[in-house]
Amino acid sequence: MAKRAFDVAFLVVFIGMAATCATLSYRLYTTRSTTVEQRALASVVGRKIAPLTGLSRSGTVKRLDWGSPDSRTTVIYAFSPTCVWCARNLPNLKALLAIPRSRLRIVGLSLSGQGLEDYLEVNGLQFDEVLHGVNSIDLVQDGLVATPTTMVVSAQGVVRKYWRGAYLQRSQPEVEAFFGLKLPGLKAEPAQP
Prior knowledge:
The protein has six helices and seven strands; from the N terminus they run H-E-E-E-H-H-E-H-E-H-E-E-H. The chain has 193 residues and is α/β, with parallel strands linked by helices.
């Protein structure tokens, strides 16, 4: 009888310790990822970035300047034709592309040129300009290596806003407020066979 009571007590203590470890690990993970994300955002927003040089859709070298001759604010949407989260964020991107362009230009920045033309055509994406083949060092310095990423750059080349990833619960309200629009949300994941 005493052995059984000891076994039960040991089991209760063990389960309690496992639950505590799991809770602490989750808190550490979420706190760390939030802190890392906040540091990444802080290092990009407010920083002046150099013009980007890449390839246009026709394959010619194109330099994306801020300001002159185009004094509109630039929205850079970094994506990849094979990115699952880019595909899920398409309804939101299409809403963004429907914004009147009098004060904004929206530039698509594809991290891959492979399948780019088909991707743009099939999805009916009408960017003001599209670049690919941008120097990877420039992309890393400017925080444009994750897809999708949305960056708002002033005519003076200063990053005003930066959202990494698809527009989820935390970022969607910020994007909506900044652009003054209502986003439809993410496309549902395709059913697994």
